[in-house]
């Protein structure tokens, strides 16, 4: 009873939010019908009948394939595209088809570059509201998806699904070369580089290449620890390397630490 009462309250609040303003110049007879439950008014005579189904919970339209029920025939038609694979909405840029017009609108933002959903904290924008909601969890540190096995929580549902494979010991991603299985697809991609020899991550300092970004980050600490004076020191060391003249003699200077002086010291030490 409590659940039903809460549902009715929620529906009434939704109904009141959609309440339309009175149309100026209309008499009592001409005014649109009003919902007796929540107070929402309507402009079409058949709309109140459909709207009442939200309050009664009636779902008279049933899918013949899976028996799922809907409140309106239009919602049933949208649902049936799952079974028929009908995609009547096509992108004018790439001709990709979609089952719903809303999906086409979201897809077209790939071509237009439109990002209408902006984060109020950092100003980063997104093409979909769901991506913005996921992003905002960085600021709020919200982790709504919790693992029932160990209690570890995640900010994204997909991360939880990957994590749960650890407990289930399920390894659905198999290597085509050696048959080794992995919990996550990303692990399989990294593993396959062993067979292909691919090293896509290059160090901008020395050009050395690595299979994973994490390995590259560990390597880059070497350059940071050496500091900015590491390169000039190496340069001086290389400039001090002896070079040979066409006659084979050393071209180092004849100072007190020159090679000939060292040679004379060895000569005097000999018997």
Automatic annotation (TrEMBL):
It is found in: Nucleus. Keywords: Isopeptide bond, Metal-binding, Nucleus, Repeat, Ubl conjugation, Zinc, Zinc-finger. Residues 228-251 have a biased composition (Low complexity). Residues 38-47 have a biased composition (Polar residues). Residues 9-19 have a biased composition (Basic residues). InterPro entries: Znf_C2H2_sf, Znf_C2H2_type. It holds the Pfam family zf-C2H2. PANTHER family: C2H2-TYPE DOMAIN-CONTAINING PROTEIN-RELATED, KRUEPPEL-LIKE TRANSCRIPTION FACTOR. This is C2H2-type domain-containing protein.
């Amino acid at each position: 009873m409590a659940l039903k009462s809460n549902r009715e309250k929620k529906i009434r609040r939704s109904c009141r939010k959609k309440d339309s303003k009175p149309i100026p110049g209309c008499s009592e007879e001409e005014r649109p019908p009003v919902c007796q439950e929540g107070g929402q008014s309507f402009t079409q005579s058949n709309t109140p009948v459909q709207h009442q189904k939200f309050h009664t919970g009636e779902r008279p339209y049933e899918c013949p394939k899976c028996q799922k029920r809907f409140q309106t025939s239009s919602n049933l038609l949208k649902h049936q595209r799952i079974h028929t694979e009908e995609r009547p909405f096509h992108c004018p840029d790439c001709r990709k088809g979609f089952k719903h017009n809303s999906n086409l609108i979201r897809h077209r933002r790939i071509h237009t570059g439109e990002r209408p959903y902006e984060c109020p904290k950092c100003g980063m924008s997104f093409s979909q509201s769901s991506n913005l909601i996921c992003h905002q969890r960085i600021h709020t540190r919200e982790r709504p998806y919790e693992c029932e096995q160990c209690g570890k929580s995640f900010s994204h549902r997909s991360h939880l699904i990957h994590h749960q494979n650890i407990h289930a010991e399920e390894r659905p991603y198999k290597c085509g070369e050696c048959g080794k299985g992995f919990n996550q697809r990303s692990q399989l991609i990294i593993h396959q580089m062993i067979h292909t020899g691919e090293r896509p991550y290059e160090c901008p300092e020395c050009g050395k290449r690595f299979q994973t970004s994490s390995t590259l980050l560990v390597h880059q600490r070497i350059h940071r620890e050496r500091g900015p004076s590491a390169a000039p020191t190496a340069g001086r060391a290389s400039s001090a390397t002896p070079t040979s003249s066409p006659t084979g003699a050393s071209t180092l200077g004849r100072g007190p630490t020159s090679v000939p002086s060292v040679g004379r010291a060895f000569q005097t030490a000999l018997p």
